[in-house]
Amino acid sequence: MPKKPVTIANTTYPSKTAAKADLRRLLAEGGPDDEITNPEDTSKLDELFHARQTKIDELKGRKIVGWGRENTTVHPCFAALLNTGEKLHFSYPKSLDALQEAQATQSRQE
Predict the structure, then answer these.
(1) End-to-end CA distance of the chain
(2) CA 3 → CA 13, 14, 17, 33, 102, distances in Å?
(3) Burial tier of 108 (Cβ tally within 10 Å: 0-12, 13-18, 19+)
(4) What is the pTM assigned to this prediction?
(5) Segments of the chain assigned E as strands
(6) Helix crossing, 39-49 with 16-28: angle to 10°?
(7) Cα Rg, the chain, nearest whole Å
(8) Residue-by-residue pLDDT tens, the chain, 110 positions
(9) What is the DSSP letter of 5?
């Protein structure tokens, strides 16, 4: 089965593996309390976060005001920084899977 490209916020990667490598790089670039401010990176995180309906549901009316990194008890992950001062962690591999599935569905419908 040939590898399929995946696009995250106008950046197209030749495969999901390449996208994961770039996201791992972004995760490792800073400390757990560093806010991610590069517009290209924040656009990617926004699209990944919103690819999963469960994460959208967890917002419960709160607003995302930024993006960061977090070291959880399980593994390092990205976090949506909320207007309440809370952080909402999310798994980029799960989000990437959801995004790729949505893109495949859209492609089949076209």
Answers:
(1) 21
(2) 10, 7, 9, 35, 16
(3) exposed
(4) 0.90
(5) 6-8, 11-13, 35-36, 64-71, 76-82, 87-90
(6) 120
(7) 14
(8) 568 889 999 999 999 999 999 999 999 888 777 899 999 999 999 999 999 999 999 999 999 999 999 876 677 889 999 999 999 999 999 999 999 888 888 777 76
(9) P
